[in-house]
Amino acid sequence: MSPIRPIRPIGAPNPPVLPSARLSRREKLWLAVLALTSVVMRAVAFFRYRFDSDEPQHLHVAWGWTAGLVQYRDLFDNHTPLFHIVTSFILRAFGERPDILLVMRAPMVVLWAAVLGATYVLAKRLYDARVAAWSVMLLAVFPPFFLKTLEYRIDNLWTALWMGALVVLLREPGRRPGAGALFAFGLLLGAALATSIKTSLLVITIVGVAVVAYGFAWLRHAIPALVGFALVPGALALYFMKEEAWDELVYCVFTFNAALSHTQLWTWAGRIAWPFVMVAIYVIARRRQFSLLAVGILIFVATLTLLWPLISPRDFLAIMPLAAILVVAHAPRKVVIGAAGLALISLIYYANRFENRTDEHITMMRQVLRLTRPGEPVMDIKGETIYRRRPHYHAFEVITREQFRRGMLRDTIAEDVVRARCHVAQADGPMFPPRGRAFLRAHFLDLGRLRASGQALQRDGSFTIAVPGEYVILNEGGEARGTLDGSAYSGARELTPGAHRFVSVKPEEALAVLWAPAYRRGHTPFHLRDREF
Predict the structure, then answer these.
(1) Which of the chain's ends, N or C, has fewer CB atoms near its CB within 10 Å?
(2) Cβ contact 467:428 at 8 Å
C-alpha cells in the first residue's frame, strides 16, 4: 500500500511530493460495482424519490423572476437570490408543465457531478489517487448527500461553488495561490454567499483555519480575495436597491430568519459558548498538530451547531466532501469499502424502497393548470402551485409557523384571500395557521388536490359567500334548478359577500355553490379529481 500524504501539520515543513497510489485490481472492481450500482439507483431515484416541500418553494421564487416579479418585494423568500435567478432562465425555456420539478432536477445532476469532481481533485492534491477515488465513492453513496443532491434546492449550487473555491485555493503541497487565484476564490465564495446565507459559516471556517495555520500573517494576502468576495453580493445589493426592494431583502433574509433566535435560551447559550469552543479548537489543534482538514470540519460543525437557529442534514452538504476525504485517508481500506457498501444498501430504506412518490405533486400540478389560468392567484402553503401568485405574503414554513404560534406574525389569510379575489386554494392541511385554515375550510370546497371557493348548502338552502365572484349552484348531476335569492336560477351568477339562499325544485337533494370557472373547467365537489387526467 502506498503511503497516504497528509495535509501539512501545523508548523511542519511541506512534505515531499509522493507518487500517486495505485488502485489494486480488486479495488477497481469494487469501485466499478459500487459506482454502477449507485448510478442506476440515482437514475431510479431521480424519477421516483419524493419531492421535498422546499423544491416547489424554490421553484415558485424562480418562476417569479420569469413573470417579471422581484424577489422579496413581490413575493416572499428567506434565502439569498442567486440560485433562483440563475435557474429562472432554465425554467423560462420549459414553460408551464406539471412535471416541471423533474425537469428542474436535471441541472442538479450537473452540480452533483461538479462536487464529485472537485472532491476528487482536492483529495488527489492533499493525499493521492486512491484516496481521491474512494472519497468520491463514499461521498456519492452517503444517504444524506445522495438524496439531497437529487432535489432542486439552493444547497446544491452552494456546495458546488464552495468546492470550486477550495479547488482554486488549495494547491499541491509547496504551491501557494497567487493574487489571481485568491481573487477567483473570493469571487466563488461571494457567489456562494449570494446563493445561501450559510456561506457565513464557511467564511468563519476559512478564517479559523487560516488563523490556526498562520496566525494573522495571512491578512496581508487577503485583499484580492476580499475584492472578489464583494463583487457578486455587491452587484445584487445595488440591483435590489434600484428596484426598491432592499428593505424587503433585509427583512426576509436577516430579520425574519433571526426572529426566533432572539427568544431562545439555547441559542444565547450557544453564542456564549462559541468563542470558548473556538479557542479550545485552536489550542488543541496547535498542540496536537491536527490536519487543517480536520480543523476546518471541527470549526464548521461547532459553528453550525452553536450559532445556527435551525439545523437539518442539508446544512452539512458543504462539509460532507471534506469529511469523506478525511475518513478515507485515515480509515483502513476494508472499513471504507464496507462503509460504502453499507451506505448503498441503506439507501433502499432512506429512499422509501424507491417507491414512486413524485406522482402526487405532478397530479396536483395537472389540476392547477386545468383549474386556474395565468394571473389567477392560488392560496397554497409554500408555493407548491409554482406558477400562480399567492395572495398571502409569508410562506408557511417552520419559522413562519412558529412566529404565528408566538404571536409575532398576524394571520391575515382570510383578508388576503378576499382582497385578491382568490378562488382556488391547496387542499387542507395542518401547515395552514388555525384562523386561516378555519376560513378556508368554511368557504372553500374540496375538488381533489385543490379547493375552490364555495360551500355545501344547508338543508334550508342557505349559504354564505366570502369571496365575491361568479358562482353556480350544483347537484350531483350538474347545475340545479330552483330560485336563488328570490329569482329564478338560470345559470352562473355574480354573488356578493354575505348570506344567500337557494330554493331547489328537489328539496331533498344535496347541493353546493361553487366558483363558476371551476365548474366550466371540469370540476365539481361531487366528483373529486384525485387521480391524474
Answers:
(1) N
(2) no
